[in-house]
Amino acid sequence: MKENLLGIDIGGTKCAIAYGIKENESLTIADKQMFPTTTVEKTITDILHETEVMMQKHELTPANTRAIGISCGGPLDSKTGVVISPPNLPGWDNIPIVSLIEEKTGIKASLHNDANACALAEWKFGAGKGTQNMLFLTFGTGLGAGLILNNQLYTGANDNAGELGHIRLSEFGPVGYGKKGSFEGFVSGGGIAQLAKTFVLEELQSGRIVDWCKREELEQLTAKKVADEARKGNPLALQIYETSAAYLGKGLAMVIDILNPELIVIGGIYTRNEDLMVPMMKKIIEQEALSLSNAVCKIRPAALGEQIGDYAALSIAANLTV
C-alpha cells in the first residue's frame, strides 16, 4: 500500500519541504524544495507557501496524504506542537507550528526535534530497521541523541530525553553544551577542533614544528583538517582522533549499561571517519561496559547519509498515528 507523506525540515540557515512516498517498509523521496531561513514571519510564510505549492504540484490533498512531519531544533513541545526557543532560530519563541500547518493544509501534522527525527529515520528506513531498542547519535557540530526504546520513540517528560552531549565525562576538557569536559566537548566537530588546538599548541610551545598547522592557523583548525592529516598517517592528528574516540567509548559504555540497546547508530563525523575511531572506541567500551550488555549491542554508522534530514521529517509523518 502506497502512502503520500510530507516533511518540513526547519533549520537555522535553510528550510526544506519534502514529498515522500512510503510503500510497505521503504520510503522514496519524490520531490524536495529548499529555501533560506530568514526572519520568523517570512520563514513561516515561506513554509506555508512552499508546502501549498508542493501539494498543488503533486495533487496532494487531505484525502490522499497521510500526514506531515516537522523536524526542528529544540527546545520544543512535541505534545502541543510548539517550537519554544531554539538557539539556532532566534525569535522562534512559542510558535505553534503544528496548528499553523494543520490549519493551512487540513492534514494532521506532528513535530519532533531533529535528533529524535533522525532516530526515527534510521530506525524505520536506515541502519536500525528491525530493531526494538536503538540509540542514534548525531555527532556533527554538536552531539545529540534520539532514543528508540521498546519499539517506540522515547522523548521523556518534556522532550529532553537523549541530551547525552550535556553529560560531563571529565572535570577538564573541551567545552561543549556549556560544560567543559562534556560528552559533546570531546565528541563533536567543535570539540575535535578544540582538542586539535590544544594538542598543536602544546607541540608549538615545546619548540616542535607542526607542518600542517602554523601558530597563526590555529583558530582555523577543523575536525576535517585533522581527519585529512590522520589519513596521511600523521601521529599527532591520529592522537587527536584517538582521544575523541576514547571519550566516545566512555560515553557509549554508560549508555550501554543504562539502556541495554541492541544497536547504536552514529551519524555525521563518525560515518566519515569510522576507521579512525573504531579501534579505540571498542577498546574503551570493552573495558567499561557490562560484558553481557556489550555482547548484544552493535555499533553502526548511519545509513541515510546526506539525505537524513529529508528522511527525518518524513519519518515523523510515517510514525504519526492518524
The counted number of beta strands is: 14
Question: Could you say what the CATH topology of the largest domain is called?
Answer: Nucleotidyltransferase, domain 5
N-to-C series of helices and strands: EEEHEEEHEHEEEEEHHHHEHHHEH
> How large, in whole angstroms, is the Cα Rg?
21 Å
- What is the domain total for the residues? 2
Residues in β-strands, percent: 15-25%
Class of secondary structure makeup: alpha/beta
Biggest sheet: strand arrangement: 3-2-1-4-7
Q: What would you give as the CATH superfamily of the largest domain?
A: ATPase, nucleotide binding domain
CATH arch. level architecture of the largest domain: 2-Layer Sandwich
Counting DSSP H or I runs of 4 or more residues, the number of helices is 11
Low-confidence stretches: none
InterPro entries: ATPase_NBD, ROK
Organism: Hoylesella saccharolytica F0055
Pfam families: ROK
Protein name: ROK family protein
Provide a descriptive summary of the structure in words:
With 322 residues, this protein is α/β, with parallel strands linked by helices. The chain has two domains: 2-124 and 307-319, ATPase, nucleotide binding domain (Nucleotidyltransferase, domain 5, 2-Layer Sandwich), CATH 3.30.420; 130-303, 2-Layer Sandwich (Nucleotidyltransferase, domain 5), CATH 3.30.420. The chain is 40% helix and 22% strand. It has helices at residues 40-57, 97-105, 114-125, 183-186, 189-205, 223-231, 235-259, 269-272, 274-288, 291-295, 308-319, and strands spanning 2-10, 14-23, 26-36, 65-72, 76-77, 82-83, 109-113, 134-137, 145-149, 152-154, 175-176, 179-180, 263-266, 298-301. The strands form four sheets. A five-stranded mixed sheet has the order 3-2-1-4-7, with helices on both faces. Strand 9 (145-149) and strand 10 (152-154) form a beta hairpin. Helix 3 (114-125) crosses helix 11 (308-319), helix 5 (189-205) packs across helix 7 (235-259) and helix 6 (223-231) packs across helix 7 (235-259). The longest helix is centred in the C-terminal third of the chain and has 25 residues, at 235-259. 44% of the residues are buried.
